[in-house]
Design a protein that fits this description.
Distance between the termini: 18 Å
Subcellular location: Cell membrane
Largest sheet: 2 strands, antiparallel
Shape: globular
Protein name: Aromatic amino acid transporter
Radius of gyration: 23 Å
CATH superfamily: Amino acid/polyamine transporter I
Strand order of the largest sheet: 1-2
CATH architecture: Up-down Bundle
Pfam families: AA_permease
Oligomer: single chain
Strand content: under 5%
Number of domains: 1
Keywords: Amino-acid transport, Cell membrane, Membrane, Transmembrane, Transmembrane helix, Transport
GO biological process, one term: transmembrane transport
Amino acid sequence: MASTSEVSEQPQQLRKSLKNRHIQLIALGGAIGTGLFYGSSESISLAGPSILLAYIIGGAAIFMIVRALSEMSVEDPKAGAFSYYASRYWSKRAGFISGWNYWFNYVLVSMVELAVVGSFVNYWFPNIPQWASAAFFLVLITILNLFGVSEFGEFEFWFALIKIVAVIAMIGGGLAVIIMNLPTDSGVRASFANWFTIDGGFFPNGVMSRAADGRWTGLLMALVVVMFSFGGTELIGVTAGEVAEPRKTIPKATNGIIWRILVFYVAALGIIMAVVPWNRIDGQMSPFVQIFDSVGVPVAAGILNFVCLTAVMSVYNSALYSNSRMLFSLARQGNAPAYLGKVNKRGVPVAAVLTSAAVTVVAVVVVFLWPQFAFNYLMSIATIAAIINWTMIMITEMLFRRHVAAGDGPGELRGLTGKEALDKIQFKLPGWRWMPYLIIAFLAMVAVLMCFSPSYRIALIAGVIWLAVLFAAYALASRGGERRREAAKEC
């Protein structure tokens, strides 16, 4: 029997302190980042106005992925989300691979965000070294994450709100330019007709075609860029273990993804291409700056710089939060050192937060010392890691339903079998019989399309190597665990 001191030292649980407004804004903010403000110019150059269709197709796929994750989160809200579900309904190895893949992915995302934060600070303070800006924001966000989950939710709420207001302001300003038929510096009157009349119309590069320089372009190639801009939407599932009312809040936040994509991607880019001809969006400046610059609003660059700085802070805030919860979950599964599964009196996994922050420091140092290695190879892993995670979510959802039908479901589903158990699932994935197969086939198509792009092709190679590393790491960790158990028996 355990002693009183041993019982008191048992790790506490995470606190369910995130409110509905926190989850709504966290989910919304996760879909709006520097990829939208700056990276959208790349996808526009590939597909022209048909990029709007690419965002709708990609958005529908992401919506189904998050619906599959939310189906499990509503019935079994746990920290670590898909890693826990993969371990519980698939295998311990699947949980290990899913969790560590996601954790390392977000370390690399954090690496990039912190590496570029200095460029935004230098816009106003050019004499501050970029490494100093990265260090300042890393320490600041780490401290915020040590306060508690409710404080994290509050800060993320306001970070996300700034981005949302910026996009809505751009949409409103763009509509005003179109309605009032204001002149622009391009010499082309702002009009939605510009989608169909400028340089090849709505499908200037077709579904897929090869340019004169040998580069593949078109709707399908833009789809590759679009899919990776949606990274972060799965954060809804990661928060499930700390949501006050998961059965009410998670479905509401998940179902809102569709209109968020339509408003903040399709509507925003549609307005931009109506005001600024798509063939003039060259990536030299943000499309969001161009729309105001084209009608003589020079302060737009400074405003967008502030918004992008906020977006970087938001992404790192979310990344550190999700990474700490993933380490916590991995530790509780037995897939990470036990110290990472402990929380303090405020319900914060302090060791997991500090460990994630420390590894991020190393990653950021790598960027400053070897930028070419970091961006060519490390970011290739981050690129393919998203497809690995999304595919594993869909496979896990199918296995989850098998467990439920067999009477091994969570919570209220436990003990029920067959159709009775499946019918009782509260937040079902639409078309659950065939949807996972469709989404997996879609993700496989995206992976094949990556082969046609030199910048993404390296990601596939890195992805294969990365999966091999994860499998090997699990094998080594399992053998180490077996040796420790055998040694304990001998003692």
